[in-house]
Design goal:
By secondary structure, this protein is an alpha+beta fold. It has twelve helices and eight strands.
Length: about 325
């Protein structure tokens, strides 16, 4: 049925035809449930994070889990274009000074989560001590120092004015601050049916213009100025990529953060082989540099708002070469950031 949906898209099918395919696909997979932490953590790392998250008072299991989600999406072999390595994205020089042999096997391996996760907690504790006298929120300063270095935090007297670092701090703080997922609807990932409902809401917006900073839970809206290439959405009522996602998932009761990077942090990473209708596909070189998001509709296609000068449309998932990962939004009572 999913392959039929792709054929129909190529032939210019109506939203109603695609919607029927989505509803069929929605029955394929039961709803998943997030872990007991407020951040969804793969079961094999949960004990490690619970233990390491109590290394010092400034670090909690939730904060550590949020940081690892943001850094690598729990990918133990992750590497970045600038040389950061492993599940906690250590630079080689930092690993040399701060890496520990967490599992006692006689070696420190940045690509071994049993070493890298406790090392990440230890490093957070050390930089918390290093920036403890800097004005402002101590947790934010610690996170900013993990991302940009303690020198930058000291230089600017708090979170430095770097867009990536500010998004990094905002995303991790928001995710770590979510209420515990002890049961009930809050803390569960969207069900297959809810994913299909979100897709149907998004595809109803196909043809709406792209607007930089446009779109919210209520629908299309005027955007802001300016895109990296200087394009303004102030005079255009429509959506950008994350605005479309915010609108679609509001239809199933989920308040999504405003940026694509923050939306990744607010969702549960999913192996690409388990992707289903309604999952989000993110693009960028790292979790903090995500620049685009689309909503998967099956058969290798997504619905998205690609860029200034385009409209909300159906795009192949391989239309951009830097796919970072796939994630499934989580029900939460956390407010929009």
């Amino acid at each position: 049925m999913r392959s039929a949906a792709v054929v129909a898209i190529g032939a210019g099918a109506t939203a109603a035809v695609i919607g029927a395919a989505l509803l069929q696909a929605a029955g394929d997979t039961p709803a998943g449930k997030a872990m007991g932490l407020s951040v969804s953590v793969p079961a094999k790392y949960r004990d490690l994070i619970q233990d390491a998250g109590n290394t010092c008072p400034e670090v909690s299991p939730n904060l550590l889990a949020a940081l690892l989600t943001q850094e690598s999406g729990f990918k133990p072999k992750a590497s970045s274009p600038v040389g950061a390595q492993g599940i906690a994205q250590f630079m080689p020089s930092t690993w040399e000074s701060s890496g520990v042999d967490g599992n006692g096997d006689g070696k420190r391996d940045v690509f071994d989560p049993e070493d890298a996760i406790p090392s990440s907690a230890k490093y957070l504790c050390s930089i918390a001590e290093d920036v403890k006298d800097v004005p402002g929120n101590k947790q934010n300063n610690m996170l900013a120092a993990y991302n940009a270095g303690t020198g930058a935090v000291k230089k600017y007297g708090g979170v430095p004015p770097y867009k990536e670092t500010q998004n990094y701090v905002r995303s991790i703080s928001a995710m770590a601050g979510k209420p515990s997922t002890g049961g009930g609807k809050s803390g569960t990932v969207v069900s297959a049916q809810e994913g299909a409902t979100a897709v149907n809401a998004a595809q109803d917006m196909v043809g709406k213009p792209y607007s930089w900073g446009g779109g919210n839970a209520d629908g299309p809206s005027a955007g802001t100025c300016c895109s990296p290439k200087g394009r303004s959405g102030e005079s255009i009522k429509g959506f950008d990529c994350s605005g479309l996602v915010a609108y679609a998932f509001a239809k199933v009761g989920i308040t999504m953060p405003r940026t694509a990077a923050a939306q990744y942090a607010a969702s549960k990473p999913i192996p690409s082989g388990q992707m289903r209708v309604g999952d989000l596909i993110f693009y960028g070189s790292s979790a903090t540099s995500i620049h685009h998001v689309g909503i998967y509709i099956g058969g290798g296609y997504m619905v998205d708002a690609p860029r200034p000068g385009t409209k909300v449309r159906y795009s192949p998932t391989n239309s951009m070469s830097d796919q970072f990962g796939v994630a499934r939004p989580i029900h939460s009572s956390a407010k929009e950031i």
